[in-house]
Write a structure and sequence with these properties.
With 321 residues, the chain is an alpha/beta fold. The chain is built from twelve helices and ten strands. Helix 2 links the parallel strand 1 and strand 2.
Amino acid sequence: MSRMVAGLAALLAALSLSAWAQSYPSKPVKVIVAFSPGTGIDILARDVGQELSQRLKQPFVVENRPGASGNLGMAQVAKADPDGYTISVMVNTFAVNAALFPNLPFDSIKDFAPVSMMARGALALVVNGNLKATTTRELIDEAKRNPGKLNYASPGVGTPQHVAMELFKLSAGVDIVHIPHKSSSEAVTGLLGGQTEVMFLPVHTTLPHIKSGRLRVLSVASKSRSPLLPETPTIAESAGIPGFEVDLWYAMLVPARTPREVIDRLNAELRVILAMDSMRAKLASQGLQLEASTPGELAEVLRTDIDKWSRVIKTAGIKPE
């Protein structure tokens, strides 16, 4: 009899949870973006949030919580109630931080539940006019002839641009000196001014400088060519470094223990939104290719990236500032 009562209680609880999930959301949802307004991740979150608001008939309100390379905002998400009313849109800096910072105020795997991949953006390897290199192979040859003489810029230690170049250095066997800056705009200014010669930049950021002739693009770091630079080869193609792949990926996470029914509801809505032609066209100008996934696929991407960047950071001796 006790087993029957326990089974009935479990069934009633499951039915109650299912009914609750079907009515989700019944109030505004907070979307935490751990970076400043106007950044690519912020634009993506707001555009997707607007569509979620229209489809689910409740406001999805973006709140920017920048600081500590995104760790402040993600700590807030980790501590939030796991009820579906606090979600996050994050970039792969999250995976780099998990490898870089030994004492984060959260566990990057255990304290979050994946919902879906949202988009990918390509990084371009660019040089300024101080270098004659027109291909990635020529850049590698120049760096090998003059070890430690070339400098590269980044927006700071642990940024995707920084770790991408460290992976490139390890893969190509070259010594190029890191010059960190406080922001992307400052790093680009230094590159254009000749204080540095090389940098990884998001493709859409690179385009105006390529068109003006102030920067030269050598390759893209993604697995396949960028639609914005279809004639530009990948690093794997142009430098003979098989398997080289670094991109900016964006995804949605929720606090751990968020009901699976809520995660599935959000995932299903994202699949519809990310397939819209209007959304794809709108975000293409930000250099983003929209891409949905299952929660399990996103979990695997996150684990793989943390493992990859842990190896790079350890080998390169990168320390947080």
